[in-house]
Amino acid sequence: MSERKSDPDRDDSERAFFGRRKGHKLRQHQAELVDHLLPHLALDIHSETPTDAREIFGPATEDVRLEIGFGGGEHLAAEAQKFPTTGFIGCEPYVNGMAKILAQIEAANIGNIRLFAGDAAELLAWLPKGSLSRIDLIHPDPWPKRRHWKRRFVQDRTIAAMARVLRSGGEFRFVCDIDDYCAWTLSHLARSQDFVWLAERADDFRQPWPGYTMTRYGRKAAREGRKAAYLRFKRV
């Protein structure tokens, strides 16, 4: 992955962003979707913050969820179709992932997804307090080298940011097949007074929660013998 060069004038949320902007060249239709469909679905975080995140969607929207780093978009698209009265915000700085979710939105005529092609920390800062029912972080980049751990999304400051936008009783859900990052996430959430881990028995984190849509990366990890943990944390 590429990273931004250090800039002392940037705040912590800006320095926390290390996403890949672009990978392989987009196919013609993918490029057309990015040029013509994405502008209709993209959130403008430079506009005024809504008083209620449901305002981003239609009047029938009952609650709003966020998926950070949705990759190929399989989980996000499936959830949006299963829960049509929920508004879904997908955050993904990687343009190839954005092109993939746009293709799924077009093919299935999904109307309850909005997208943000940028830094999730900036999006969290823009969203209104207590406006989300759930945040999903599924198979994030683990940044395995110690010197890169500061690049992991789960940090004390991002946990606080998630706590601000999640309503009481809302959930942060984390899926990862890297043991070290799972331990890292558990330790960071354990020292937060805003969250409680919901597992009561081993299968609560060894098995996917009911209705979980396995991603392509998740299937690959399983084939290669890596077992994922499925962690759920409730906002108190």
TrEMBL record:
Residues 1-17 have a biased composition (Basic and acidic residues). Its EC number is 2.1.1.33. Keywords: Methyltransferase, S-adenosyl-L-methionine, Transferase, tRNA processing. GO terms for molecular function: tRNA (guanine(46)-N7)-methyltransferase activity. The keyword S-adenosyl-L-methionine applies. Gene3D superfamilies: Vaccinia Virus protein VP39. Pathway: tRNA modification; N(7)-methylguanine-tRNA biosynthesis. S-adenosyl-L-methionine binds at residues 67, 92, 119, 141. GO terms for cellular component: tRNA methyltransferase complex. It is an enzyme of class 2 (transferase). It holds the Pfam family Methyltransf_4. Substrate binds at residues 145, 177. It catalyses: guanosine(46) in tRNA + S-adenosyl-L-methionine = N(7)-methylguanosine(46) in tRNA + S-adenosyl-L-homocysteine. Residues 1-23 are annotated as: Disordered. Catalyzes the formation of N(7)-methylguanine at position 46 (m7G46) in tRNA. HAMAP family: tRNA_methyltr_TrmB. Belongs to the class I-like SAM-binding methyltransferase superfamily. TrmB family. This is tRNA (guanine-N(7)-)-methyltransferase. It comes from Bradyrhizobium nanningense. The gene is trmB.
